[in-house]
Every structure is written in C-alpha cells, then in structure tokens.
Amino acid sequence: MIKIKDSTAYHILSFDFLLRVIVVMIVLSSLQAFASTIVLDDTQDTYDTTPYMMMFEDPASQLSAEDVIKNDIITQFKTNTGNGINKGYSDSSWWFSFSVHNRSSNTQWLVELSFPTMDYFELYSIDKKGIITCIAKEGDFFPFDHRKIALNNFIIPLTLRHNQETRYLVHVKTTSEVIIPLKLRTYSSLIEHTVKEYSGLWFYFGIMIAMFLYNLFLLITLRDINYLYYILYVLLSALSNISFNGIAYQFFWPDWPWFHNISIVFLGNLAVMSFMLFTRSFLLTKKFHTTYDLLLKIFIGTIVPIVIAIPFAPLSFSIICLNTVVIFATFLSLIACIIAIIHKYKPAYFYLASMVAVFFGVSLISLRNFGILPDIFITRYGFHLGTSMDVILLSIALGYRYNLIKEENEKLVVLQNEIEIARTIYNSIVQTKVPELPNVAIESVLLPTEVIGGDIAEITKIDEEKTGIFIADISGHGIPASIGAAMVKMACAHANQYAEFPDKFLMSIENTLSERIGNQFITAAYTVIDTKHLKISTSNAGHYPILLCRANNSVLELRPKGGAIGFYHNISFAVADENVSKGDRIILFTDGIIELRNTKGQLFGQERLVDIIQAYREKSITALKNEIVAAAYRWIAPQKEFDDDFTLVIVEIM
Q1: 96 CB neighbour count, 10 Å cutoff
Q2: Sign of the C-alpha dihedral, residues 127, 133, 136, 137?
Q3: Between vectors from CA 419 to CA 417 and to CA 424, what angle results, nearest 5°?
C-alpha cells in the first residue's frame, strides 16, 4: 500500500512539474509572438531596447519575478508603441520584458540604463525552460561602490554565447520619474559614449565654474548684492545638475545614498530661491511695481517650508513640488522682466534673452518629467543647454548694468556739480536774515523739497512806517524752479520803485517776466504794511489768500483779483485795503503747506492751518511758526520729506 501511495505521489508530482514547464513554454512562446526579438550582429555595437519592450504595471507593488512567470502575468504585458518609455511620476512597480538573440561574434555585452536617478531596479534572465536568474540589483538607493562598473549611469555586464537567445525581465520601483532609456552596448561602444557624455557634462560644468569664479571676483571687487545672488544661483544650479547626472554621487558623496536621493530637489529649490532673489534685485521690482514685488516675496517665502520638509516628505512629492516651483518661477520672472521693459529698463532685454533660454530648458525637462515628451537627448540635456546660456546671458546683463550705472554715476557727478552751482546761486537770492523793522515782529521759514527750491520770500523796509512782504511760488522743482526764483529776485529788484503800491509792484514783475519764463508760471502775493495809519494793502497774482488774524481771533482772507504771472497776460492787479490793529497777525504761505498729503491721500488743507493759527492766538508768533511746521511733519509721517517747497511768513503788528 505504501509503495502504491508513493508511486502515485511521484506520478502526480511529475505531472504537476511537467504541466508547469509546458505552461511556461507556452507563455514564453506566446510572448515571443507579441514583440520582436533584438537580433545582435556584427554590424552594430549599440541597440535601443525600448522598441522591443513589453510592459506591465503593478499598482500594489507586490509581485515578484516568479509571480510574473508562474502566474501567467507575463501574458498581460503590453507592447511599447512609443519611441521611448516614460511613465512620468508613478507609485507603481513596473515590469518590462525584451528578448535578445546573439548572432554576433561578440559574447560580452553591456546593459546600460542611462537614468542616474533611478531608485531601484532588478534585471532577470529567463531561459527557454523558464528558469529565472537574477543578474543584478541596482539603483541609487545603494552606495555608489555597489555598482559593477563605476560610472554615473547603471552598467550591467552580460555574457551571451553565439546564437544564444534569452528573454530578460526588468523590475523598476522609483520615486522619481519612470523613464527607461535602456540600451545594449559593446565595451567599445560604452567607452565611446561615456567619453562623449562626460566631455559634454564637464564642458557644461566648466562653463558654470568659469561664470562662478569670474562673477565671484566681481562681487569681491564691486560688492554688489546682485553678484551674490547670481553666483549662488550658478553654484546651486551646477550642483543640482551634477546630482541629476549622477556625477555628484560618483565623486562627492558616494557613501550617502540618502542625501543623493534628496540632493536634486534640495539644491534645485535653493537654486530657484537664489534666482528669484536675483530677479527681484536685478529687475528693480520694488521700484517698478511694489505689489508685484510683494508677490515675488511671498513666492520665495513658500519655497522655504518646501526645503525644510524635503528630508521628511515622500521624495516623489518633493520632485513634483520642485517641477511646479520651477514652472511658476519661470513665469513670474518673465512677468517681472516685462514690467521692467515697460519701464524702459535696458538691462531687462538681456534678462529676457536669458529667460527664453531657460524657459526652453525648463519646458523640455518638465514635460519630459511629467511623461508628456519622450526621454531623448534634447529633453534630457535641454535644461543644461538652457541654464548654460542663461548664466552666460545673465553675466552679460550684469556687466551691461554695471556700465550703465557707471555712466549714470559719471552723469550724476556732473549734475551734482551743476546743482552745487545752482544751490550757491539760490542761497544768494534767498533772504536769510529778516531786517530790523519798526512796529512789527516777523517770523519766517523756507524749506525747499530738494537741495534747491522754487519758493521765494522777500521782506523789505520801505521806510520807517512801511514794510513790504513779497511771497512767490515758481512752478516745478529743483534747478528749473531755482532759475525761475533767481529771475523773480531780479524782477523784484527792478520793481522796488513801486514798493509802496502792491498792484504796480506785481505789474512790474509781470512785464519783466511774462515772456521770459517759458512754460513756467509764478503765483505771488505782495503786501504793504503801514504801521502809522494801521492799514495793509495787498495784491495777488493767482496765489493763495493772505490770512489776517485779528486780536479777537477772527480770521479774514485777503485775495484780490489777479492771475498767475506767465499763465496768461494780466492787464492789471486789484488791490485790497484793510485796517489793522495792534496785535493783529498777517500770515503768508505757499501751497507746499496746505497741499501736503498724508498716507491716506488726505490734504492738510487751509482749514487746518486756520485752526492752528486760532489755537495759538495767545502764544508768540515763534511758537505759532514752530507748531505749523511740526503739524506738517506729523501730517506726512512716517514720510520725512515734503513733496513741495514749504514757505511761511508770519507778521504781528506791535
């Protein structure tokens, strides 16, 4: 009985084994019908496997090579219909299969996976009997010295006898893009290809190093913050690309696979940050568009938590974030460049040329990473070409900008000399000392908005009983206004023959200047104070009113009819006469006081000035003057400079 049972078990086991072998052979033969076989011969030394590939997605990442073969899963493989294999970002495991028939005399071949950021992959061979052999387990999860051949790409040696036919199975699991640029090469082909690839990469890195060192020297020499941002961008971009190509892993951190896996996204995000800092500074976004400058600051700020989270977040998420950040940074920088061009900032044209280059490279690699474009030479190295052109053009832009600044500085020196001459002239015409006058007390202040101004105030002793006070505001600012003030000063000297008559005084100035001041115009007021008869006479040329604050604290506006000088021709000026008493105050001012605006855009206004005059009625005119000036500064705070010349004259009848 026992022998019968043993014999039965033996036959059952033998039948089961035979059945499995038959199934495997059927599977392999049926699979052979789906895809062509790569035939190796002596006419070629390099073969691209992707046109012969079949593939299968394992979303759960639970299958082993034995499962794929024994469970008929290999029959579910789909033929690759594209020019390459690019599945973008995927959390799945992927299985690929291809068949090789060696008819060449060469028995030593190499499998090259030229995608250095692949995390993990396995290569299996399957013979005609269905026996699976693991040839290699590779990926950048392993230390660099784990590789069979020490190159940036993954190289696996194969031994194929003449006329040998073998099917290979590739298992891939990675957090980066699922890109399979798999080739079969001879040793001579590998050497030739490696020399070309390394030469191209080191040429690129040589450009980056040269740009870094050259601009580092300029940074030390010129101490311009733009050069600091630029060299950081060049350094971090170069390091990120070195890591992307596997060169950094080979030479810089071969024993740190954990850092190598995050180095691309870590260095890449830092490169984007430095580039955006350079963009803000170089394109003067704070000057040209403060709101957009704030948007760039916010964007740069959002990169900081991404960088901090990189060691803790899933690498696939960090890679997607980096690609998204790069795309947004490119568009934001392009808009900043357009804004600068609209403001006629010439260095922005060089920046635009560099942006075209980097946009080309970024678009190619991003579309490749998301699986939209295939992995070919131009999509793999387009970013290198784009960034190398980018840093060269940006370096030219920095040099052009420096030359512009140098020219502007030379012009500024000339302008400063001219301003100094104009300031000397202006100071010579400004009355700095009030003459001693009987029966009146006078306080005055003149604060030009620039080094030189266009306001003028003249206080003249006509005789022992009469005082003439002239105030004028010349349109514009700076040198043109100061030239106009000088012309008014000379016209006043000619008009002094009419000092007792306000209307004739202004008419004399009108006749002297009306056809000599070009597009400028002058508003002015002239008041004669007669302390013997306690009377004032006023004429006005388009100026704000003279304020008369009486002893009872009422305020009267004196503004007789008259137009601005130079705006149109005045036939005559009206005169306003008013009786005064001891203790009355006369206030003359220019529009630089009442047209002050605060941060909300509100005017200081004449009513606020009158309120201060009335509030300080019982105090000295010195205290009143100081309070008006202090109130004006409080109104414009936190700004510290007035927008227009500030002139004030206060007279009290004694």
Answers
A1: 22
A2: positive
A3: 100
The helix/strand/coil state of 481 is: helix
Distance of alpha carbon 420 from alpha carbon 431, whole angstroms: 18
> What are residue 449's phi and psi, to 5 degrees?
-70, -25
pLDDT band for 3, please (50, 70, 90 cuts).
Answer: very low
Three-state secondary structure readout of 597-613? ECCCCCECCHHHHHHHH
Strand order of the β-sheet with 154-159 is 46-48, 182-185, 108-113, 154-159
Sign of CA pseudo-dihedral 241, 246, 252, 257? positive
CB 446 within 8 A of CB 645: yes
> What token pair was written down for 535?
């009377």
Round to the nearest angstrom and report the end-to-end CA distance of the chain.
147
Q: How far is CA 578 from CA 354, 463, 651, 652, in A?
A: 72, 20, 15, 15
Alpha-carbon Rg of the chain, whole angstroms?
Answer: 43
Query: Hey, which bits of 570-614 come out as E strands?
Result: 576-579, 585-589
Write down the number of H helices and E strands in the chain. Answer: 16, 23
**What span, in angstroms and rounded, lies between the C-alpha atoms of 628 and 447?**
13
Spatial CA neighbour of 140 closest among 162, 172, 166, 184: 172
H-run or E-run covering 270: helix 257-282
Cβ(548)–Cβ(585) below 8 Å: yes
Q: Which H or E element spans position 402?
A: helix 377-429
**Shortest CA distance to 383 belongs to which of 366, 402, 408?**
366
- Partners of 541 in the beta sheet? 524
* Distance from C-alpha of 73 to C-alpha of 514, rounded to nearest angstrom: 100
Q: How many CB atoms lie within 10 A of CB 376?
A: 15
Mean pLDDT over residues 24-47, rounded? 69
- Backbone dihedral region of 54: left (phi > 0), alpha (psi from -120 to 50 degrees) or beta? beta
Q: What is the spatial distance between Cα 115 and Cα 551, in angstroms, rounded to a whole number?
A: 93
Q: Which residue reads 């696939």 in tokens?
A: 316
Question: Residue 323: which H helix or E strand, with range?
Answer: helix 315-342
Could you report the per-residue pLDDT of 316-355, keeping only the tens digit for each?
788 889 888 988 998 899 999 999 999 998 888 888 888 7
DSSP 565: B
How is residue 496 written in tokens?
């002094």
Sorting pLDDT into bands at 50, 70 and 90, what band is 431? low
Structure tokens at 241: 């690309």
Query: pLDDT by residue (tens digit) across 179-215?
Result: 888 999 999 999 998 898 888 888 888 888 888 898 8
> Rounded to 5 degrees, what angle do the CA atoms 493, 499, 503 make?
110
CA atoms of 70 and 169, how far apart (whole Å): 13
β partners of residue 123: 136, 170
Which of residues 603 and 85 earns the better pLDDT score?
603
Domains of the chain: 2-185 (2.60.40.2380), 191-406 (1.20.1070), 431-653 (3.60.40.10)
CA distance 450 to 476: 11
Which of the residue ranges 273-277, 479-483, 497-501 would you say has the lowest mean pLDDT? 479-483
Q: How much of the chain, in percent, has pLDDT values that exceed 90?
A: 45
Burial class (CB in 10 A: 0-12, 13-18, 19+), 188: exposed
